[in-house]
Amino acid sequence: MAILAECPRCHKRQAVKNRICSCGDDLVKEKRLQKVRYWVVNRLPNGKQRWEPVGLSIEEARAAEGKRRAQKVENPGILEKAPAERMTFAELADWYLDLSPVKKLSSYNRIRQGIANFNRAFGTRIVSTLKPLDLEDYQERREEEGRAPATIDMEISLVKTMVAKAFDNDLVDGRTVKAFRVVKRKLKKAGNARKRTITIEEYLKLVDVAPDHLKAFLTVAFNTGMRTGELRALRWSHIDREKWVIRLPADLSKERRAKVIPINHHVKQVLADLPRAIHHDFVLTYQNEPIVTPGGLKNSFITACGKAGIPYGQHVPNGITFHGLRRTVKTNMVNAGVDHVYRDIILGHSLHGMDVHYMAPSEGDLHRAIARYTEWLDGQLVLQSVDHSVDHKPKNG
């Protein structure tokens, strides 16, 4: 039994003590960056070797090697089984959630919670024994518990991604992948689409009653269409003051693509008024501290909706959500006459058809598009302010 290190450049598996790979790659540096994958090699009773990937740190590899040595003494036959024959979903989750690329995802907390929900039912289950019928039963049970179809589909999708990653790394076999491939979604396509937008009047009411930190979130969201998670993760280093654009890196966007978002005068004013912390680089904060979880901002938004007399909630009649601001921005861009290509690029939506290959707007084009939207929006804000003044003008006599 031995531990081997895999070179991230040429993928040669070699002794852990090697400092330089035969391809010339600096293994010491790669290990420090957690790019070297470790393997435990077991000699089976039939003379064959079994290679098992065990993570990106030597500590994980040594722990796995020790575990396999103990198993070899206690139950030699278990090592003849493939990892899928002895690994439970709880063990698979421990491996997956500890991967460095997964930990860096902005949606890590949601991924961990979704997998935890699944593992309450299947945590002790050997992964290779899962059948499509088991997943269908899980869907029905979750629905009986009152979970929305979209929530159920998301949980299964998160576990499906984990299983696919494990399959690529030889931890599970095709039987487990098949179970997730054939199960059908609970939510029909576009069945969860919402139409509720936020009027200019409602937006002004929210801004009027919102505390300072929420007012900044509302203003930036209403002028850029950025998602809640993107706003919470926004850093000063993403702000290009020379070109006046937000350069959002791929790992912060839902689409996993870098985004360039032009900044108009409303957002410029917000940025000018915000204090800049010394101990962190986040732009939109609460009491000068980053908002780590969605709950804090959500609670502030619910409170503001109550003060403004606006119903809140996805399942409340005529209720709004913070995400509705994004839908509103795209709808307003249509009303302002902004071309669909610019709308999609600014909001980060995928282009379709030949636009994918032939449309490559410059940052100047995007600035002109946002200027057109801002001109329309400013006109609507002025009209709404005038109407508000007329409605509240005191009558003579």
Fold and architecture overview:
The chain has 397 residues and is of the alpha+beta class. The chain has 3 domains: 1-77, no CATH class; 81-193, DNA polymerase, domain 1, CATH 1.10.150; 200-391, Intergrase catalytic core (hpI Integrase, Chain A, Orthogonal Bundle). Helices cover 51% and strands 9% of the residues. The chain contains 18 helices and 9 strands. It has helices spanning 27-32, 58-74, 83-86, 89-97, 100-103, 108-122, 132-144, 149-168, 174-182, 200-209, 212-224, 228-233, 265-273, 294-308, 324-335, 340-347, 355-358, 363-391, and strands spanning 2-6, 13-15, 37-43, 49-55, 239-240, 245-248, 259-262, 285-286, 289-290. Helix 4 runs antiparallel to helix 6 (108-122) and helix 10 packs across helix 14 (294-308). The longest helix is centred in the C-terminal third of the chain and has 29 residues, at 363-391. The protein is globular, with a radius of gyration of 26 Å.
Largest sheet: 4 strands, antiparallel
For this structure, the quaternary state is single chain
| CATH-assigned fold name of the largest domain | hpI Integrase, Chain A
Shape: globular
Q: Helical content, roughly?
A: 40-55%
For the secondary structure, the number of strands is 9
What is the architecture of the largest domain at the second tier of CATH?
Orthogonal Bundle
Radius of gyration using CA atoms only: 26 Å
